[in-house]
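Appendix B: a complete holo record

For completeness, this appendix reproduces one full record from the ligand-bound portion of the collection. The bound molecule is coenzyme A. The inputs are the chain sequence and the ligand SMILES; the output is the full three-dimensional arrangement of the complex, encoded as structure tokens. No fields have been trimmed.
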Amino acid sequence: MDITISKLKEEDLGTLVSWAEDEKTMLQWCGPVFDYPLTVEQLKEYYSETERPEPKRIIYKAVDVNGNIAGICELGAIDRRNGIASLCRIFVDKNFRGKGIAEMMIRKMINFAFSELNIKRIELNVYTYNTPAFKCYEKLGFVREGMKRKITKYNNEYWDGYFYALLKEDWKA
Ligand SMILES: CC(C)(COP(=O)(O)OP(=O)(O)OC[C@H]1O[C@@H](n2cnc3c(N)ncnc32)[C@H](O)[C@@H]1OP(=O)(O)O)[C@@H](O)C(=O)NCCC(=O)NCCS
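The structure of the chain with coenzyme A bound, as generated:
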């Protein structure tokens, strides 16, 4: 599939709002970061970090030949002093899943982090029930380091989360 990867722009935020179609989808994708329903207003504040010098957050988008945004992925909590960052808020539009788009975006982000940002360790969190997501991270070489119990409340249930990391020395670009 012909996909281009570039930085997310402020005018793309409306597409992200359309993906948060219900609270569960938003929580699974973003963690307990935004209030449901998601709004462009909330995302503008979140996005503004990407525009600072030495940002703590970088967001990529995948775009198809017709200009449709197929997905996004974020490198957040960028800690340049310790060389650590977190991969988060990865989402692929339902119409584009299963075509290798998440893998493509994440590979590009990992290469950037290890080669341009001097990052040595990339971490991520994923809910334990989210098999498509953690299979994708495992395929890329992320190692499960543990599990945190009951980290997010959704209605009357609590979700557990795995935490994973990838070290620079284990990454083959
Ligand atoms: C998780 C998600 C980002 C995967 O996106 P995708 O573009 O469909 O994934 P890819 O096509 O790049 O798949 C890469 C690998 O992930 C794994 N994978 C993807 N979908 C899978 C599924 N439904 N079941 C099992 N493994 C799956 C496979 O290992 C796959 O490699 P393979 O095709 O060689 O087997 C997508 O399902 C999504 O947006 N989910 C909703 C949001 C979300 O939960 N985000 C993660 C938050 S932590």
